Amino acid sequence: MSPIPFAAGSLKFVITRNQSGLNKLSPIFTMSLEKPMGIKVPIIYGKKRLFNKSANYLLSIDKNCAERDNDNCIGKLRAIDDENRFYLYDNGDNFTKVGS
């Protein structure tokens, strides 16, 4: 995967929250790239995980991904302490155990 070239100019991303129907307790967030004429292309989905004391979200490229073990799962976003700071975890190695 390569980065977006500077020639592409500025990009506009939109984050929407779907909290209707069955998504009341665990809303689904969608980050979309907004193209000209209002066309939105979904990039990443985030789903709030239930039964956690702090805010904890599963990030994936599939809207229906529910497990971290799934290949479509990118990682998780977790609120720390006062919920003004977040940590982003991927499926990589644990940094405390690398080199041991």
Brief rundown of the structure:
This protein has strands at residues 12-18, 28-34, 40-48, 56-60, 73-80, 85-90. A six-stranded antiparallel sheet has the order 1-2-3-4-5-6, with no helix packed on it.
- SSE arrangement, N to C: EEEEEE
Biggest sheet record: 6 strands, antiparallel
Global geometry:
globular
Percent of sequence in beta strands: 35-45%
Helix content: under 10%
SS summary, helix count: 0
Largest sheet, spatial ordering of strands? 1-2-3-4-5-6
Give the domain tally.
1
Low-confidence stretches: none
Distance between the termini: 30 Å
Overall strand count: 6
Q: What's the pLDDT, averaged over the residues?
A: 79
Structural class: mainly beta
* Backbone CA Rg: 16 Å
Key structural traits:
100 residues, mainly beta, 42% strand, six-stranded antiparallel sheet
Your description of this structure?
- The chain has one domain (12-90).
- Helices cover 0% and strands 42% of the residues.
- The chain is built from no helices and 6 strands.
What is the topological layout?
Blueprint: E1 12-18, E2 28-34, E3 40-48, E4 56-60, E5 73-80, E6 85-90
Antiparallel strand pairs: 1-2, 2-3, 3-4, 4-5, 5-6
